[in-house]
């Protein structure tokens, strides 16, 4: 049995408790994660990376198997934006499955269907922000464009501009302070409007006397030359403006990682790593990566969709000789889940919004969050005491450093996760993830120890 690393907020940082090989493992995983999070800047890119990893680790498409046996490793995707993976266990699936679920979407700026216009001899793209952002975060920084456009003939074209050193980048110019007196007197959430988040994309006119909007056409010429796109193709496109920088070490000691999209792709990475490294378990293990959490889990790729239920149904039909809806319902009700989502860490610059006794600290391990919600736990999935005990016991037995943490002071604000949607099936669920500083900003910060312990914790949950 490994050493009990059970660790409540306010105690010694976990790094000091680790031996040399464990510290090396932390740093090795962090480097692997840095490469992942630098490349996974959209939900589609995240799923593409997960599919590639699954294939490299012996997972096959579920549709390729008509019968499943213990040890089989399968996956399925939907619309390129969500994915489920499973390692079949030795116990009867009727006893339930162990689920770790995270989301692949992050706050960003989406191009509008008709984004391109010309004004003041400049070309710009109109955007619509996605998720809960502070709009002022997104001005005055270099941005890249990532996404896809589907042409009229159905051809899908991938678009990435701004990641190579030779690429141009984009930005939203901020108002100079010399003329910002009225702006600075506004509330922070009013200083920059949603309609003011337009990207600078061009400034040279085309050399064509017959063209009216010459600078706009310079942009269109570029899109046609590089990607074969026409202006109308942007109507059937999903192109996102995201920060044009890679993940970086933060701190003189390199103890932290700063990157865009760590909410919630740090959970995606650690869950993915946990399930691909998992030997054949007793209870069937499921990893779930869904879309649209940041805007309410809606749509046919969000947690409200039938994707998860359909995946478990497909598993069941390949395992249980006499499949029925009743069997499926029993499996779901007997299952257990971790809602793998990040939480807020204690920020020394903003201690007044936190209850320090019930707030996670960076470097103190994986965070167990009994409930989220706001205004009297509204919208929360409040984990039962019995399940909290079970998860705590599992982590302690496997030597996983963990801590308890909530989301700020009562009546300060709040938030939610997909936990309540998993709980609709009757299964026990608790939120469990990495604490962040600067959540929902273009450069979120996570501690390398906490990332490592998330991987260890999710794997421990699968192993039982």
Description:
- By secondary structure, the chain is α/β, with parallel strands linked by helices.
- The chain has two domains: 14-106 and 260-463, Aminopeptidase, CATH 3.40.630.10; 108-243, Roll (Aminopeptidase i, Domain 2).
- It has helices spanning 20-39, 43-56, 181-184, 214-227, 262-276, 307-319, 325-333, 385-397, 419-423, 448-463, and strands at 60-61, 73-78, 82-87, 98-103, 108-119, 122-130, 143-150, 156-161, 199-202, 237-243, 248-250, 256-259, 285-290, 336-339, 343-344, 366-369, 373-374, 402-404, 414-415, 428-433, 435-437, 444-447.
- The two termini are 14 Å apart.
- How many beta-strand runs? 22
Q: What composes the largest sheet?
A: 9 strands, mixed
Helix content: 25-40%
- Could you name the ranges where pLDDT drops below 50 across 5 or more consecutive residues? 1-5
Task: Give keywords.
single chain; 464 residues; Aminopeptidase; 2 domains; nine-stranded mixed sheet; six-stranded antiparallel sheet; 10 helices; 22 strands; disordered N terminus
Question: How would you summarize what this structure contains?
Answer:
Keywords: Aminopeptidase, Hydrolase, Metal-binding, Metalloprotease, Protease, Zinc. This protein has 464 residues and is α/β, with parallel strands linked by helices.
């Amino acid at each position: 049995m490994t050493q009990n690393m059970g660790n409540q907020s306010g105690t010694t940082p976990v790094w000091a408790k680790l031996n040399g090989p464990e510290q090396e493992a932390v740093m090795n995983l962090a480097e692997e994660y840095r490469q992942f999070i630098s490349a996974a800047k959209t939900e589609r890119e995240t799923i593409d990376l997960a599919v590639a990893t699954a294939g490299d680790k012996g997972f096959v498409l579920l549709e390729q198997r008509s019968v499943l046996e213990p040890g089989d490793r399968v996956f399925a995707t939907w619309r390129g934006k969500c994915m489920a993976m499973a390692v079949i266990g030795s116990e009867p699936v009727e006893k339930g499955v162990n689920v770790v679920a995270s989301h692949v979407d992050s706050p960003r700026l989406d191009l509008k269907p008709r984004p391109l216009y010309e004004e003041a001899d400049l070309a710009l793209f109109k955007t619509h922000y996605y998720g809960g952002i502070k709009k002022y975060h997104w001005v005055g920084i270099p941005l890249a464009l990532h996404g896809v456009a589907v042409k009229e003939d159905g051809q899908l074209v991938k678009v990435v501009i701004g990641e190579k050193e030779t690429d141009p980048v984009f930005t939203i110019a901020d108002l100079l302070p010399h003329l910002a007196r009225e702006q600075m007197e506004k509330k922070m959430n009013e200083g920059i409007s949603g309609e003011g988040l337009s990207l600078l994309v061009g400034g040279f006119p085309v050399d064509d006397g017959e063209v009216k909007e010459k600078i706009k056409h310079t942009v269109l010429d570029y899109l046609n030359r590089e990607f074969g796109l026409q202006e109308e193709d942007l109507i059937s496109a999903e192109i996102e403006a995201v920060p044009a920088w890679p993940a970086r070490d933060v701190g003189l000691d390199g103890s932290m990682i700063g990157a865009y999209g760590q909410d919630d792709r740090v959970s995606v990475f650690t869950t993915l790593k946990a399930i691909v490294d998992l030997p054949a378990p007793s209870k069937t293990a499921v990893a779930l990566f869904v879309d649209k959490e940041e805007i309410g889990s809606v749509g046919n790729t969000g947690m409200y969709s039938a994707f998860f239920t359909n995946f478990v149904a497909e598993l069941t039909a390949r395992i249980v000789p006499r499949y029925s809806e009743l069997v499926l319902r029993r499996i779901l009700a007997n299952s257990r889940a971790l809602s793998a989502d990040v939480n807020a860490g204690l920020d020394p610059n903003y201690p007044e919004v936190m209850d320090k006794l019930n707030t996670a600290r960076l470097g103190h391990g994986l965070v167990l969050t009994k409930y989220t919600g706001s205004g009297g736990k509204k919208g929360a999935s409040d984990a039962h005491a019995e399940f909290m005990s079970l998860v705590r016991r599992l982590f302690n037995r496997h030597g996983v450093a963990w801590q308890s943490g909530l989301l700020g002071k009562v009546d300060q604000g709040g938030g939610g996760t997909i936990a309540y949607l998993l709980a609709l099936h009757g299964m026990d669920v608790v939120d469990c993830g990495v604490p962040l500083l600067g959540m929902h900003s273009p450069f979120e910060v996570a501690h390398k120890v906490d990332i490592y312990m998330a991987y260890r914790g999710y794997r421990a949950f699968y192993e039982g």
